[in-house]
Structure formats: C-alpha cells, structure tokens
Amino acid sequence: MSHTLLHDESIPAALDGLWIKLRSVSWHHGRGMELQLIRSYVLLIARSGEGRLTVDLDEHRLRPDTVYIARPGQTIGVTAVQEGLDFYVFPFDARREGEPDEPFPFQGEIPVYPETQTGVLSELLYHCSRSDDALERFRGQSAFQELLYWTMKRIRLLPDSDSKTALERTRAYIESHYHESLTIEQLARMAEISPKYYVDLFKKTYGKSAIDYVTEARVNGAKQLMMHSDARLRDIAHQVGYSDEFYFSRKFKQAVGMSPTAYMKKRRRKIVAYTSPILGQLLALKMIPYAAPLHPKWTAYYHKMYRTDIPVHLSAYRFNEDWEANIEALRQAHPDMIISHSDNLHPDEREQLEKIAPVYCIPLQEHNWREQLQLTAQLLEASQEADCWLDGYERKAAAARELLHRELKDETVLAISVFKQNYYVCPVRGMRDVLYGDLQLHPARGFDPAHCNRRITQEQLAEFDADRILVNVCQEPESLAHWQSLQSSPLWLDLKAVRRHRVYTIRSDPWREYSASAIERMLNDAVRLLYGDRPD
C-alpha cells in the first residue's frame, strides 16, 4: 500500500509556489466508477461507506479516513464494497516552475482524520462546477484550494504499529513467502494484534480469509511453475508450500475446477491470443492462452479473471500502438502459434511475428462472431467444443428473448455511445447482433439496425423517441464532462426514456468487444438491465 506522507512542518514547504487548477467535479452516490485512464491528477474523497479503489494493477481502500491522489497516466476505478458509498472525484492540474516532472508533492493513499468541513466543501464544489454562473464556477477554484488545505491539515501520521499498515505488511509477506509454512498466529504476531482480531480484520479488509489468501497465492504460484514442460507435480507441490502432493491436488482442484494434471495438459501448447477478441473466442472453447492482451482498463474482465492463468501479458492498449513491445515479449516467450485478426496488424508487424512462430489470422470484417468462433475452433481442432458452446448460447438467448419480450412487449430500445461531444447510434456490431438479432428487440422509430455507428445530433436522438436507451460513455475526461453536462440539458431531460427512468449505462467491456465470450456477457448484461426495469 503506497502513500506519500510528509511531516507537519514540511507540508507548507511542499505546497509553496504550487499552481493548481480544478478541472471538474463528479459525485458518485451508491455506486462505483468505471475504470478510466486519467490525463490529470485526481483527488478522491469518500464521505461515507467503503469502496475498493483500483489504481493500475493495485487495489486500495477508499473510505472517510483515507483520501487518494492519482497521477496523470494512471488507470483508476472504484467498486463499492459497502452500501452507502458516497465519494467525490476531483481532476486537477498542478504545476511548479522549474519542476515539471512531479510538481504535486502528495500521491497515493493518504490516511486522514475525517473532517466535516471537507464534506461541506466537496458538496459546495460539486454545485459550483454545475452552475451556469461563471462567477460561481470561479468560486469553485478557491473552494478547491480550501478543500486541499483542510485535507492536508487533517493528514494522519501513522505509527509503525498501526494495525492497518501492519496488516498490509503481512499481506505482502504472504505474497513473497507463500511457499513457507504460515500460520495465523505467526501473521498476527507480525501485525502486533490478536489472532482473532487479525482474522476478522483481514477478511473485512481484503474480502477473503487469510488462509484463503495463502491458498490463492500458492495456486497462482503453481500455475506459473506448470508452464515448464518438465515440471513434476510433486516438485511443484513442494515449491509452493505443500509437503503432500495429494493434498495440494485437492486444494488446486477446489480453486481451479480441474486437477493439476488436467490443467497442465491443457496448457501444454503455447497459444498466443494476439487480440482481445481472439482471447474471447479461446475462452469460449475452454482454452486459456499462454499470452494475451491484459490490462485493468482495456480488458478489465479478462484481467480480473485470468491474469494469474496467463503468464505473458501483452499490451492491451487500443489501436495496438504498442506492438513493438508485444513483439519483444513474444520473442522471449517462444510460443507455438499466434492467432490474430488480419485487420489489426501493422505493415511490418506480421513479418516480425512470423519470425517468432506461425501466425494464423481470422478475418474480422468478412465473418460474424459465430463464424469467427468456428474458424478459430477448426484451426485448433476444437470444432466439437465450438458446436457445444453455440448450442448452449442459443438456448440461453432463446430464454432471454422470451423473458424480455414478456417484460418489454412493444417498447423500443436504442443503444448510443458518447465520445467527446459526439453521439453515435449502435456504434459496434456486437450491440446490433445481441439487441436486434439474438434478443430481437424493437429498434427505435426511424432507426435501421443495418446502419450502425452513425453519428447523430441531440435533435435526432429526440426524434427516435426510444422507450429505453442504453448509453456507453467513453471513459476519458472530455466525454465524461460532456455526459455530465448532457444529463442536465432540457432536451435530454425531455426524452421519454429519461422521464420514465429507463436509461441504462453500459460499459465498454464487454459491449465494444466482438467475440463469443463478450457476446454472452452482453446478453447477460442486457437481461440484468432491462428485465424488471432496474437501471444500473
């Protein structure tokens, strides 16, 4: 758990000569915040409840006795872990003459004494930022300076014996010493608290027991060792902390759902999923690749679910701008085969890939996701698995279709995306295939699903007059600011779907990916959002 703390006397000096400008304010009440790449500093302040803050690859606690300051270029997101989570997000710029690299002296998780005044100032800032009065928005800048003052004033300098800090030390110790014999009593002594309190505090803080955390660390370590072709089960068990290989096998099967032997057999072939849709197709075939694009924002679901199963994490940045780094990572991994989409490869990229391993490209534009799944399966001699998966999906889609038709009847549904200050109707193929193909929902009046990704105006959005609207907002500052502004505009407030509280926000993951796994998650998401009229 990283944080930057200064002694009381050094705080004024750290802030001296610092230029700060607030960019915007957003308030999140009762829900989290989707992962987003930030272009400025961001201050997060919780007023009540507790959330799990993800910053790049790390997780932190967000609650009233901590604030968090993230840096430009990081990826941040918040998940509520308690009801009543209420927090503010303040993007801001900071600059100090002569120190352009790291002008803001505080970063990371900072313990504070909860202060009523910070809540009052946060609420004031939120209302100032949404005001039509330029003078009130100007007032918000001085209020933000005041908020920073109160936050820095209430910094809590922690002694080494603080239980939360000590608890984090034991978690880090588990991750680096899981192969040793670890007991609750030993870990509690390290945290300088009683074993009973340690057990309760660990579960409350990390959402799982300390024993389960040790087991998870050992299983993840075993998965890495299983990547070696000459690995023996008994040796692997001993290396991750189990003296009895049969007991290890039972624990592994409980955690993974298959025996270590079956897992090793499945992982023997080093397959590279070079794009996230290929990863989605392989997972539908029950195949976990050796390398794939993984990132907490760009491929959030895959990163969360499979990051410990996939040894080589390729760059998942959109438009594949980091392909040279991927080439180098694969050159060291020595894969057996690489599967990609021909549409995504740069001119020199395929040539470099072919020097590493045979490259197979699945055409993206010429085939729908079902055909792409079957082509991928044929390549891997897994056509039976593809047929089985598709049969299961068709049954699930039929049940979902019947459920939603009974709920929605003749109501119309429209999917749009917000990118910067533009609106696009049904921007990607997956949305069309799920909503108007598999679920056979009624399109909005005047909208032809055959013509997707069409830019529209607010006036055209009103003309569609949809009963329900699914909205995907690009998680970058300009789009988020425009979305916030749009929601208070008279034209938006007059939309039928808005008046009836039938607007649903949908995430880019899975709704902008085109693969079997993503399509199935879209189907589940559509049912969750639309059935029973429960907006997200």
From TrEMBL:
Ranges of residues in domain HTH araC/xylS-type: 168-266
Q: Which UniProt keywords apply?
A: DNA-binding, Transcription, Transcription regulation
| Fe/B12 periplasmic-binding domain mapped to chain residues | 270-534
InterPro entries recorded for this chain? Answer: ABC_transptr_periplasmic_BD, Homeodomain-like_sf, HTH-like, HTH_AraC, HTH_AraC-typ_CS, Tscrpt_reg_AraC-type_HTH
* Protein known as: AraC family transcriptional regulator
